[in-house]
Amino acid sequence: MELAVIKHNGEDTGRKITLSDDIFAIETNDHAIYLDVKQYLANQRQGTHKSKERNEIAGSTKKIKKQKGTGGARAGSIKSPIFRGGGRVFGPRPRDYSFKLNKKLKQLARKSALTYKAKDNSVMILENVSFDKPSTKGYIALLNGLSLSGEKTLLVLPEQNKNVYLSSRNVPKAKVVTVNDVNTYELLHADKLVLCEDSVSMLETLLLK
């Protein structure tokens, strides 16, 4: 699959890049995508949820009423879960939601996501981007030049560029990552995948090793 390299203003540079069929035209695996996205979302959870059980509630431990003869059910302390203000039965406790996935499965998931993007014609190749200083206006102008204003975009840089990242941070629906940080969830979440020229070869090296 060949794609033209686009300038920042949306014009064609006259150069073309061939995308590897081993990444952008594989037999997709939806279950691998599901597992990778599930892991990504699980890793976003703090897992700090907590409710108090009866042994953690502040209150008297005095027996509320006598055991027998009242005509009602027996009752212990006011901290019992059946009373208002009592402890919660089997409430949530802090826990770690993360789980392990094999590296090859994660690679398969990312390649499947990239294949879907290529099939939908949602991949663009852009000249390498570099800003001298953070500029939200400059990043918006870049998106306007590519006719991507208002769309969910994922720009993949070959290496960390703080100015480009800071420029995109306040732009709605815009996300900037490096090749090493590309993940299945963000690939599928974006309407358009914008790859910098140098990012293509690095992405192929990363996913084919």
TrEMBL record:
Described purpose of this protein according to its UniProt entry: Forms part of the polypeptide exit tunnel. One of the primary rRNA binding proteins, this protein initially binds near the 5'-end of the 23S rRNA. It is important during the early stages of 50S assembly. It makes multiple contacts with different domains of the 23S rRNA in the assembled 50S subunit and ribosome.
Q: How does it assemble?
A: Part of the 50S ribosomal subunit.
Could you confirm whether the keyword rRNA-binding appears in this record? yes
Where is the region Disordered? 45-77
Specify the protein name: Large ribosomal subunit protein uL4
Q: Which PANTHER family match?
A: 50S RIBOSOMAL PROTEIN L4, LARGE RIBOSOMAL SUBUNIT PROTEIN UL4M
Q: Keyword set for this entry?
A: Ribonucleoprotein, Ribosomal protein, RNA-binding, rRNA-binding
GO biological process, any: translation
What molecular function terms (GO) are annotated for this protein?
A: rRNA binding; structural constituent of ribosome
Origin: domain of life: Bacteria
Which cellular components does GO assign to this protein? ribonucleoprotein complex; ribosome
Which is an annotated Pfam family here? Answer: Ribosomal_L4
**Entry similarity comment:** Belongs to the universal ribosomal protein uL4 family.
